[in-house]
């Protein structure tokens, strides 16, 4: 899947200076259950490396976004995760100031009222469709 860049100072605050970042990120991914078995997470200087076996390509994508949308994470590599090939087209988008899910849906899907499709595709990183923030990276299902 490759390497993804994220905004280091934005996202969910999961760990403090006395916490093990890799363990906290692993717990977050597993609690949101994106479908990665035998998950292993390492963290060094803002870079997260994931390994394991994803049940679907979507589960892998969601795992990467969960790990990347954390304060202190600048990169996520998922080269160590095996997953089936992606069957549907997905684009990634980084939210900017002033964005709403409706505006993003209108731009990418052609219909503002299609925002629930984006929300559902990102439930692991967006808990409330009215609470998104600049710098957050999300998936846009294109089919």
UniProtKB/TrEMBL annotation:
Location within or outside the cell: Cytoplasm
Protein name in UniProt: Potassium binding protein Kbp
Keywords attached to this entry: Cytoplasm
PANTHER family reported in the protein's UniProt record: POTASSIUM BINDING PROTEIN KBP (PTHR34700:SF8)
Cellular component GO terms, alphabetical: cytoplasm
Main localization category: cytoplasm
Top-level taxonomic group: Bacteria
Keyword Transit peptide appears in the UniProt entry: no
NCBIfam families associated with the record: PRK11198.1
InterPro entries assigned to the protein according to its UniProt record, in alphabetical order: Bact_Kbp, BON_dom, LysM, LysM_dom_sf
Domain LysM: residue ranges: 91-140
Organism, as annotated: Candidatus Thiodiazotropha endoloripes
């Amino acid at each position: 899947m490759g390497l993804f860049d994220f905004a280091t100072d934005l996202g969910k605050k999961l760990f403090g200076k006395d916490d093990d970042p890799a363990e906290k990120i692993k717990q977050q991914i597993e609690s949101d259950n994106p479908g990665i078995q035998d998950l292993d997470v390492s963290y060094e200087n803002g870079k997260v490396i994931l390994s394991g076996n994803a049940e679907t390509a979507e589960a892998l994508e969601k795992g990467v976004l969960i790990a990347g949308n954390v304060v202190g994470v600048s990169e996520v590599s998922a080269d160590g995760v095996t997953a089936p090939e992606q069957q549907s087209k997905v684009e990634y988008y980084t939210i900017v100031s002033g964005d709403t899910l409706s505006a993003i849906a209108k731009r990418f899907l052609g219909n503002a009222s299609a925002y629930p499709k984006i929300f559902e595709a990102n439930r692991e990183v967006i808990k409330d469709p009215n609470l998104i923030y600049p710098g957050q990276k999300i998936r846009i299902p294109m089919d």
